[in-house]
Amino acid sequence: MSPSASLYSELPRAGEACFRYQGLILWRDFPEIAQDVRRWLDDKRVGGSHRRKVFSAFVEMTYNVLHHAAPTVRGPLGGGAGRSVLATLALGLEGPEVWVATENLVEPDRAGALAERLTRLVGLLPVEARLLYRDRVAAGTGHPGPTAGNNAGLGLLTVARDAARPLEYSLVPGEAPGELTTFSLKVYV
Amino acid sequence: MDFSCQATALTPSVSLDARQRTLRIEGECYPENPAAFFQPIVEALQAACLEVPPRLVVHCRLTYVNSASLAWLRRILAWLDGRSQEGGELRVVWEYDEEDDGALELAHDLTSGLHHIDLVEQRLPTSS
Questions:
Q1: How far is A63 from chain B, CA to nearest CA, in Å?
Q2: Distance from A139 to chain B by nearest Cα, in Å?
Q3: Which end of chain A, N or C, is surrounded by fewer C-beta atoms within 10 Å?
Q4: Distances, alpha carbon A3 to alpha carbons A31, A132, A133, A186, B78, in Å
Q5: How many structural domains are present in chain B?
Q6: ipTM for the predicted complex
Q7: Enclosing domain of residue B14
Q8: Which pLDDT tens digits describe chain A residue by residue (189 residues)?
């Protein structure tokens, strides 16, 4: 897929071993982007459990962007009535590890809660993340009716559980009060 | 009440055979809106499992499940488990790639603490 717009700052690169999508993202684009990532993983011969964990990190982080990023484009360019965001999604190889990174804008009043969640996740040992994940899944015993939520905050915890190193993130406030905050997240799997 | 839907790029195929008491889920699962995807399945299951305790075999061959879908699968299994407390027959046959032990761990996460589910692990060759 070709990016439809350019954006913000540069994410870390790993020479030729980098997949990068930078631009406008719509829900309807996601299957095609995911297929591109699969091809990239095929090309880099990432297989088995490692492949599933990398793909999982990519999906969870992209969904996090699609759900929580500040919508910056509306109207025809933004897919009509649909919600769209500008973001960067990237994967790269670094030795035996694959990194997955995202960058997007968030409303300033969301940045605090996001930093709080991520700080907790960064401080977890792998075994702690693993146990917390299982506890959160086991806590999901509510009736599976129409009022049930879609998630129990599992997305970023899933990413932390599968990470080979602590999550790396930054939240850079806009220059003027009330301006959007730039949120970057990177994980090594 | 039977139910079926075809796989898409983001969702698995689902087939509920109320007479045979089987539910098959196969593919990848990371829908844009998990509630919209799972709610019809829940309704069909509820109609098919009116008897107490219920009998059901769930065949899962999920190559990837995102966290939001996992939460829905857990709720469904927990609901079935709760209805089986008086002696129902609830079996989950979990098929997973032999090169992906994490997929088996997922099955254990999903069924952790659910005491009336018989988890059957089926390891499949990667090429299948």
A1: 8
A2: 9
A3: N
A4: 15, 37, 34, 20, 42
A5: 1
A6: 0.87
A7: 3-124
A8: 333 333 334 444 545 558 888 888 887 888 889 998 999 999 899 988 899 999 999 999 999 998 888 876 555 544 444 567 889 999 999 989 999 999 999 999 888 888 999 999 998 888 899 999 988 888 865 556 555 554 556 899 999 999 999 999 999 998 888 888 999 999 999
